[in-house]
Structure prediction request, 250 residues.
Amino acid sequence: MPSVGSTPHVSPEQHSLPRSIALHLLPGAALFGFVLVAAALGIPAILALLIGIAVVVVPIELGYLLYQGRSKSGRWSVWEVVDYREPMPARRIALWTVPLVAWFILMLSLSVAVLDGRIADGLFTWYPESIREFASFEGDSTYATWVVVAVFAAALAINGILGPVVEELYFRGHLLPRIDRFGRGAPVLNAVLFSLYHFWTPWQNIGRILGLLPWIYTVWRKRSVALSMAIHISVNCIFLLLVLAAVTAD
Prediction:
């Protein structure tokens, strides 16, 4: 169990392992189903993913937290069931965020450069081609200009801020504290399940898990969902800029 400062930490009611696995994976499965249907209808997968975050993931995860808050206190409040709210000064958040973001980007970039394409081509040829394009940052896609403009007009708001905030409230603020009984295994389990939750990019699991482990372990030790939000928002915004640069490259 983590121990930070002088405030004793009392774990919330613990989830069973099957329940925890289901709660980690079901929102991602729902999003993946949405992306598959949208891709079959001709909507570019990356655009479908952004739409799905807004209309599938956010309502499911935020709705679950609100429902749990209502059940616990009679109020529609996520804070009733979000733990790991240990206050951290902005300077300390920044000091932790920089190296953890750098590590995550390094691991995922190495995965993209070395593993992702090979794994996608070797194990996931049955995925629709539009979804397998997530396996690289190559800028040779056939997306129309309007698609690029639409995607990146919405991306910073949806995948840069809204998605990360809600996911951190759900995965680190709510689910992680409820597997505290596993001790140091809790952040490992949370990292693995959060990576598997990304059903639309399973070829990134190795690099993503390696990148997530120090991030989630630090959040578990510090009990700060604000720190995790800062890391997640930074990571997503940086990768959005990298994808934009790749898509618009000559």
DSSP finds eight helices and no strands in the chain.
